[in-house]
Amino acid sequence: MTVELHLGDCLDIMRNIPDKSIDAVITSPPYNFGGFNRNGRIRKYNSYDDNLPEEKYKEFIKSVLLECGRILSDGGAIYWNHRGKIANWVYYAPYWVIDYCPVPLLQHIIWKFPASAEVAKVKWYPRKEDIFFFSKGKPKYFNPEMAKLSDVWEINHECNFGFDHPAPFPVEIPNRAITASTLQGDTILDPFMGSGTTGVACVQTGRNFIGIEIDEVYFKIAEKRIRDAQQQMRL
Length: 235
Known about the structure:
The protein has helices at residues 10-14, 54-71, 96-100, 144-147, 172-181, 197-205, 216-234; strands at 3-7, 22-27, 36-38, 41-43, 72-82, 85-87, 90-92, 105-112, 128-135, 152-154, 187-190, 208-213. The protein is of the alpha/beta class. Strand 11, helix 6 (197-205) and strand 12 form a beta-alpha-beta unit. The two termini are 16 Å apart.
């Protein structure tokens, strides 16, 4: 298997990826929250303010989704983890992502978790996020054993990571998507690589990985995590 990591803007790098050369995209983009409330304090990304005007943010996400559709092979899958936001005491659902993606939605998966870092005591604590499963036509592969897990994924948030990133997700999420929708030797892209979780899952499952990250600090974290995973697999 191969691992290819890129430091830079995802749109710039994706435009150099050939058409229909990616078997799956598994990612979680910044949510445009302007930071995350963690135990009473706001944690922000290192070099990305995550606070674009909403229309500019949506246009950026649309551009990324269009590139994902272009480079995805026929029958390939996109697993896109997103979350709604509250602004001025109004909830804005993330379902606009479905309309912006050129690849049809096959299923809406709920990621359910038993605890949340949310501390605002003026509303119900959130216990779920959305994962949109898009398929470019009939899936070329789907693992029937994974289907039994249903469209509600009960997966705990991981903690005590040992690295500094405000919003890492559990490795079990990309692990499930990879095992369900790809075969060993397939190529998977994460255009918002962050701390490298999807890359770690690819190493663990024998898939090729292309990761893109704009922040140098997070890029180095991802490099180390993926390198450590490769060493662990050699033992």
